Amino acid sequence: MGADALLVVPPFLKYVAGPLLGPAMLQGAAEARGHRVDVLDLNIAYLREAAPGPIAGGGEFVGDHDRPERLREIEARFAGRLRSFFPLDEAGDLGVDPVLALAFPLDAVERAVLRLVESEDGRWIEHALGAPGRRRPDLVGVSVLWSGQVLYGLAVSMLARRAWPGVPVVWGGAHVTALAAEIVRSPSYGTWIDGFVFGYAEDTFAAVLDAVASGGPLPPECNRAGGGVEHRGRQDVSASPVFANLDVYGVAHDGTRRIAIPAQASRGCPYGRCAYCTYPAIEGEYGELPWDVISRVIAEADRLGATLSFKDSLILPDRLAEIATLVDGRVPWSACTKLHPRLADGAFLRRLRDAGLRTLEVGAETFDGERQKEIEKEQSLELFARVCRAVEAAGVSLVVNLIAGFPGEDPRARAASLGAVRAIIGSGERPVKLHESRFQLERLSKMGRSPDRYGMRVVRAWPWASVLAWAEEKRFAGRRLVVV
User: Do 334 and 198 belong to one domain?
Assistant: First the structure.
């Protein structure tokens, strides 16, 4: 007899387009082994209550590759709500709100959880866990993709233990993986959590449920806080995602409703050299997923009348062409890529457009030549302009990501580069979204592992934060000068 799992997605994620792929993959793998999984997406519930009605913007962008402005407003309100549970703290240069980064000592986080549990939001979580018809689960899983979910995830864990004594609580997700080394070193992470799973882990999740159902010990890949050894989860790339409870998702455009089904054609990154990025460390080595699994997800999106949002960290042109052949125009789809000469080929882009491609997201990051060399991602402004012209001519919308605040960045060069990018974007008529974010020093990035190599020193770290506070250093006349 199989086990019953409740898999919870805490708020807050700036994501409203459809279900998340990770929980759907875990559910598919577990159900293939005879278990039952109920995904409780508190993030979408939070968003629906925070902003009733349509959240997304115009219909030119497919999937979640356009971040609606209303989500920024909701995130700011959410950060204010988190702030009410904490004392103010100096966090240093993080590139993100310190409250969302959870830049606090462990005891401050635990006190904040207790305040949250006793608040109106705690009662909201408690009500969601005890919804009519939900029976006592055999396992509670919590999916945490970034630090902004941690506090509510801890509250979910505490309240689940209160409601169902003896039911194990297990955490997984990208943020948990980013903190793996810290978690296995310190038992303090296990106050309300029985185990942590690192990396892609469909097979491990099913194995945990096998153990729960049989009354046996949890597998070693379900790491205990302070266990001393880091066991990576076992993935199952043959698992097909299960998308359930879809009535809570979807965005409205002109009175219509359409959801975005997430998919992956690969895991890891085929480029894998960007010094600021954590994908290689968190996702592992690059590998392509089986075409039969991808085909089943395409067929499901077609059946649902949905769009398809490929969640790969980077899809190179050859792989885009293979996906286009597989989709063959049945559903509109989107993907993330990087600047490449083939994307300036109008005929190539038109073939992708005819096969259903509607949105491309590119990580341009910066056009400052020195910064490009340091982050190991050199791309020319001239190629960017050519790609923009080709994308527009093909009738594909474009999302461009830029990052400000890299160490050693000259503000004047940054302003000139940004002006040139905006001039290129503004010269066309097709919709282009420019997303600007600030540089963050992540623990598992090359820059985070060897900050001195990139002219930085780490000033401070916190147990639940994946980002590090840093100060810039420069070499001058054989001496190191700290820039303050």
Answer: no
| CA pair distance 470, 106, nearest whole angstrom | 20
- Best CA proximity match to 20, nearest among 291, 283, 242, 278: 242
Q: How far from 31 is each of 1, 205, 207, 292, CA to CA, in Å?
A: 12, 11, 12, 18
Same domain, 207 and 296: no
d(CA 236, CA 200): 8
460 inside domain: no
pLDDT of 415 over the 70 cut: yes
Are 418 and 270 in the same domain? Answer: yes
Q: Which structural domain range is residue 38 located in?
A: 4-214
Answer whether 178's CB lies under 8 Å from 443's CB. yes
Is 251 part of a structural domain of the chain? no
Per DSSP, what are the bridge partners of residue 232? 198
Give the pair of three-digit tokens for residue 272.
């894998």
User: What pLDDT score does 416 carry?
Assistant: 87
Contacts with 194 (C-beta within 8 Å, 6 or more apart), sequence order: 168, 169, 170, 218, 222, 224
Task: Tell me, yes or no, if the pTM score tops 0.85.
Answer: yes
| Residue among 256, 327, 343, 269 at smallest CA distance from 295 | 327
Confidence of residue 478 (pLDDT cuts 50, 70, 90): very low
